[in-house]
Design goal:
The chain is mainly α. 74% of the residues lie in helices and 0% in strands.
């Protein structure tokens, strides 16, 4: 006999439905879309490259549904660590929380590095450290200020991209299509990085208004919106430019919409990167805080906030953007697999109102994880595993000191 699902009381939380959708879209539409077109065009030249974004977004829908179903059954802060705790116990939950934290750390470092490179190419490492220091002060005050910032920046970055996407749909230009020059694997990992981010929506579910409904909708909705936007933007690039390379999106905007649109897109690029930096720095400490199930607060505790900011600063100052993008994609796939395993275990036991009917997204989610992991290089898998193991030891020490 299945247990009834846990329902959080309706409340006036810090995060409404629009803010949660903004968190998801902002978490997805960040750095990735500005680097993915080059990789996709090299593997699938011409307008057909737009199908890569649609196909991978569709493939990730079962993963998003895993998170959506779990967040509806457990509308509290914590995300995958909370799900693992209910499915497998405290010991396994701690390992999953560390894994998710490492995944988010790579992403946070990557977007911080990208913003620092854009603000000051000559002093990238110093600026990256300064960004981490400034945002740790903001996030120590809770979610309200960060939520306002990511919602505003999401609107500012989406407006010019939507115009460019619309122009891509109505433009009939057909530039010469070259032969593929690279295998599909690197392009898939680049698009995966561009699409990841929907998984952060359930993290602050305990701070949401009507979280058992709003969080699942925002999780799936943000993925679908981003995938469609990416496909249209890539289509615009291929129809405007004979060669899709670095800086393709502002260049395509200049060709299709003139100087003003190119400038607006250029500003949108900065807003896009800044927005995801704010969102990732706000959410990543919550993965670490989830190691302790008793933490349910508006602001992450200092023992989660400070190590997160410090390690994000170290990674963003010492690693290249390309390295961080690949490591982030590898680590997030492991997180997706852990969430799917939790849903399978809970459904098998009939816990929290879940049954076998709720477990159907698990098998396709495992398939997506395995196929994409096979695209990674061996040294990336080894490095991600080594960092996760090291982080586990660090977290155990942090928890010992926090007692």
């Amino acid at each position: 006999m299945s247990q009834a699902p846990e329902k959080a009381p309706e409340k006036r939380g810090a995060l409404g439905s629009l803010t949660l959708l903004g968190l998801g879209v902002n978490g997805i539409v960040g750095v990735g879309i500005f680097v993915a077109p080059k990789s996709v065009a090299a593997a699938v030249p011409g307008p057909r490259g737009a199908l890569v974004y649609l196909a991978l977004a569709a493939a990730c829908v079962p993963v998003a549904l895993v998170y959506a179903r779990l967040s509806r059954a457990l509308p509290y802060d914590g995300g995958p660590a909370l799900y693992a705790q209910r499915a497998f116990g405290a010991g396994f939950a701690q390992a999953i929380a560390v894994l998710c934290w490492v995944s988010a750390l790579f992403s946070t470092a990557a977007v911080t590095r990208a913003l620092a490179e854009r603000l000051s190419p000559a002093h990238t490492s110093l600026v990256a450290v300064a960004i981490c220091g400034a945002l740790v002060l903001v996030n120590a005050r809770g979610l309200s200020l960060s939520a306002w910032a990511w919602t505003l920046l999401t609107a500012l970055k989406l407006a010019p991209l939507l115009v460019l996407a619309g122009l891509g749909l109505v433009t009939t230009a057909q530039p010469t299509v070259a032969a593929p020059t690279t295998p599909l694997g690197p392009a898939l990992l680049a698009v995966l990085f561009a699409l990841q981010g929907f998984e952060i929506v359930p993290l602050p579910a305990g701070q949401a208004q009507g979280g058992d409904r709003a969080v699942p909708r925002a999780t799936v909705g943000s993925l679908l919106l981003a995938g469609l936007l990416y496909a249209c933007v890539h289509l615009a690039c291929t129809r405007a430019l004979p060669l899709v390379s670095d800086g393709a999106i502002p260049a395509a905007a200049g060709v299709l919409g003139g100087t003003r649109l190119a400038r607006a897109v250029d500003v949108g690029v900065l807003c896009s990167i800044a927005g995801i930096v704010v969102g990732m720095h706000a959410m990543t400490p919550r993965y670490l805080a989830a190691v302790r199930a008793d933490v349910q607060s508006a602001a992450p505790p200092p023992w989660a906030l400070l190590p997160t900011a410090a390690l994000a600063a170290v990674f963003s100052a010492s690693s290249s953007l390309a390295e961080l993008l690949d490591l982030s994609s590898v680590a997030v796939l492991a997180q997706y697999g852990a969430a799917a395993a939790a849903l399978l275990a809970l459904s098998a036991r009939g816990a929290l109102g879940l049954g076998w009917r709720d477990a159907w997204p698990v098998l396709p989610s495992f398939g997506v994880v395995v196929v994409l992991l096979l695209q990674a290089r061996p040294h990336e898998l080894l490095l991600a595993a080594a960092v996760t193991l090291g982080a586990t030891l660090v977290v155990r020490r942090i928890l010992h000191l926090a007692k």
